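Demo today. Your pick:
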Amino acid sequence: MPNPENGGKWGILGGSFDPIHNGHINLAKEICSKKELDGVLAIPAVKHPNKSRLSVANYSDRLAMLKAALADLSEFLICEIEAEENLSGYTIDTIRALKKRFPKVSFYFIIGSDNISTIDNWYMAEELKSEVEFIAGSRPGSDYNNKSQLPVELVEISELDISSSEIRKMIKSGSTFDELTEYVPASAAKYIFEKGIYNK
């Protein structure tokens, strides 16, 4: 596995991962392959500037699910920079901290195409333009018109239409382990069931 300390091209996959699911993984894996990146840094969020988006599961559980899900995927490296440096949770602060820690790396921030319409509203969005390149995964055949002021490169991927909130609802409604593993890696699903996460 390449090490970002040596430089190269790295994707950034940030998120609450509440829980991590196959949509996150497929998005990053396909962009990593098509853009010939050296790897993807998966960065679990600690703080949420938007109070309405607070995580359901605590950080340690979300991190454990992330580690379980990505354990056998060589494209990914988990980076806890937001926790280690007590960052604000704003994307620009995380990007700047990453560039300081890994000065030889060219970073690419990975998002789903559904997020393009919101990034103009992100904190210090104009400054983000000069800090990092954005790559969005788009569904096959989609004709997405980027109305954002930030330059975003579209990469066609076989996107899985699922969200973490929908998965939490599935669990609360009594979904079985087999049903859950259609959307969540089995190792992470096992952790969810053993710990009873999202059943409370």
In short: The chain has eight helices and six strands. The chain has one domain: 4-161. The first helix runs from residue 22 to 34. The domain at 4-161 is CATH 3.40.50.620 (Rossmann fold).
